[in-house]
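Here is one chain, start to finish.
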Amino acid sequence: MDVEERWKRLQQRLGYSDDELAILRSRPKYVKMVEETPQFTRNKIIAEVIKSQGCICQLKPGDRIVMDGNGHLITEESPKRICIWALAPLAGTVNAVFERFVEQLDPNDLVFDVVSCQDVGVECGGWGRVLMKIRVEGPETK
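Its structure:
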């Protein structure tokens, strides 16, 4: 797909007016994302459970929360039940993946690639605790 078609599809998807699209196109970082970074459409971001104790949604090691390269949850490839406390800490790490996409760096070379759900565990007054390792799967990854 050519560059103009990408912009047109983005405008339609987000419901932008021509003026709003012009604002977006005036920002170099967004131009780079749309025009030079196909990783957003060709990869999946995976948060794989590596440890789970007392999870109310019963997430267990090996379960995978799967997102497309834009960070959208792919419900068909993810556990049926995921609580907000497991999803919330993914935002910062997914943003780091986006930065690596834009800079054409290996998205699997994150320094901090393990996150914890926001429940503190039964010993600290919560229900449980889940640890997840973040990685990217797709044609540009190893």
